[in-house]
Write a structure and sequence with these properties.
This protein is of the alpha/beta class and 307 residues long. The chain is 51% helix and 16% strand.
Length: 307
């Protein structure tokens, strides 16, 4: 074989190798394996909820949204999840509040800007004939809730901002390298990076809560893709002018939140100085999972106090 032919074969082999590395399929795992360490009562509760609450679907500007509509009552609660979440991550709150309120929870499609997310949320509210509601947003969902208040303030009667942050420059600056890696890495690697972060960062600060680790891990074993996560990251670092709401606001925060720094927590409270604030102790970033009764009770108290 000539040197030219050998170099051709070598180049082709390297291309195949790199292609295989980049397009290697992301692994999946069954529910039973992912949730094997979760207490049986919680595991069965989630399975039963999923059986009885099949998500609805709505296509908005070419993107398919999934959402859950449940409960009853004259008031509606809209729950918005964070960067790693889905509509059913709120199942404990839905089960606890459904007899008192109508509840809508959404799953974001792979959208890359807050305007697209806001348009989808408004379309779901219109579809469900909800003129005005209370919005409860956590992390990215709390950031989106603030953006919604700048776009459609007339649609919201109260606001709960949970484990979240105001418009800022800190996150984009602090995560610049991670943002580049997120865009360039293959799908399977992005999901693995998030899964490792759940185990090494989120799990310890949640009080080593097996449910929190299992639910988040499940998202990376087939429910989410790189497109979802890249889009949500772009939303997190998108800048906008904070709203000046006249409606009641509740801020829920954790004193050991590994994803929202102390400076961002302080900045959020300065941005909304009239807000009621409740601080969870050693609850991490997902208290609605690992401290669900306490979390839900704070929401209930706020809703009753602000009627």
């Amino acid at each position: 074989m000539s040197k030219r032919a050998f170099r051709g074969w070598l180049a082709g082999g390297l291309i195949l190798l790199l292609g295989g590395f980049y397009f290697w399929p992301a692994p999946t795992k069954p529910f039973e394996e992912i949730y094997e360490k979760v207490p049986e009562a919680e595991r069965l509760s989630l399975q039963q909820f999923r059986t009885t609450h099949i998500p609805k679907r709505l296509v908005v500007e070419g993107l398919e949204w999934e959402y859950i509509a449940a409960g009853q009552g004259s008031e509606t609660l809209l729950f918005l999840h964070g960067m790693t979440g889905a509509a059913d991550i709120w199942w404990k709150q839905i089960e606890a509040l459904r007899s008192e309120y109508r509840i809508i929870t959404v799953s974001y499609p792979p959208a890359s800007d807050l305007e697209t997310l806001a348009t989808g949320v408004r379309a779901i509210l219109d579809k469900e004939q909800v003129a005005r509601c209370t919005v409860i947003g956590t992390s990215l969902g709390g950031y989106l809730a603030q953006y919604l208040l700048t776009r459609f303030p007339e649609r919201f009667a109260r606001v709960v901002l949970s484990n979240t942050f105001p418009p800022n420059d800190e996150i984009a600056s602090r995560t610049r390298f991670q943002g580049i890696l997120l865009r360039l890495a293959p799908n399977w690697l992005v999901l693995k990076i998030f899964r490792d972060n759940f185990r090494n960062t989120i799990y310890p600060t949640s009080g080593q809560d097996a449910l929190t680790l299992a639910f988040l891990s499940e998202l990376t074993y087939g429910r989410l893709s790189k497109a979802h996560l890249v889009g949500r990251y772009r939303c997190v670092i998108q800048s906008f002018e904070p709203p000046h709401p006249s409606v009641p606001i509740l801020i829920l925060e954790s004193d050991n939140d590994p994803l929202v720094s102390v400076s961002l927590r302080q900045q959020l409270k300065r941005t909304y100085p009239t807000a009621t604030v409740y601080t969870f102790h050693d609850a991490g970033h997902f208290p609605y999972l690992n401290r669900a009764p306490e979390y839900t009770e704070q929401i209930r108290r706020f809703l009753v106090a602000q009627k």
